[in-house]
């Protein structure tokens, strides 16, 4: 029996004993706050944009940075020990995007460090 099965069995046993019957909020929907790390005054705007299929530009930029870093590692792993000019230039381009991202991100602790492949 694996860990997940053990947990499920313990939950079933607790349910059979009625340990979940008197929990606060029973029968009510679970409320999960949208955008918990966004300042409250921005949450409605972010929700409206997200519902319309838009994301703030800094989030789109962060997604692009992640994709380019992932692609960098894929290429680096395929060329092995040889360093290509593309890898070096791509590090510079990724770091330019990171600098732009750090200017746009609304919360300082969300800023990214520069991409340095030698130091993951």
Helix and strand string, N-terminal first?
HHHH
Spans of at least 5 consecutive residues whose pLDDT stays below 50 are: none
Count of DSSP-assigned helices: 4
Q: Using only CA atoms, what is the Rg?
A: 23 Å
Query: Shape from CA axes?
Result: flat
Percentage of residues in DSSP E strands: under 5%
**How many DSSP-defined strands?**
0
Structural class by helix and strand composition: mainly alpha
Sheet having the most strands? none
Percent in helix: 55-70%
What is the quaternary state of this protein?
Answer: single chain
Chain-averaged pLDDT: 86
The CA-CA distance between the termini, in Å, is 36 Å
Throw out a few tags for this protein.
single chain; 120 residues; mainly alpha; 4 helices; 57% helix; flat
Structure description:
This protein is mainly α. The protein has a domain at 34-110. The protein is built from 4 helices and no strands. The chain has helices spanning 3-16, 40-51, 57-79, 85-104. Helix 3 packs antiparallel against helix 4. The two termini are 36 Å apart. 3% of the residues are buried.
SSE topology sketch:
Layout: H1 3-16, H2 40-51, H3 57-79, H4 85-104
Helix pairs in contact: 3-4
Give a summary of the structure in a few sentences.
The protein is mainly alpha-helical and 120 residues long.
């Amino acid at each position: 029996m694996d860990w997940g099965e053990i947990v499920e069995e313990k939950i079933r046993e607790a349910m059979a004993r009625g340990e979940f019957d008197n929990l606060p909020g029973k029968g009510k929907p679970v409320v999960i706050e949208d955008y918990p790390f966004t300042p409250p005054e921005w949450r409605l705007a972010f929700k409206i944009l997200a519902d319309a299929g838009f994301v703030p530009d800094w989030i789109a930029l962060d997604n692009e940075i992640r994709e380019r870093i992932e692609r960098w590692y894929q290429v680096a792993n395929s060329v092995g020990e040889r360093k290509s000019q593309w890898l070096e230039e791509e590090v510079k381009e990724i770091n330019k995007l990171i600098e732009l991202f750090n200017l746009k991100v609304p919360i300082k602790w969300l800023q990214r460090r520069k991409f340095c492949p030698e130091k993951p």
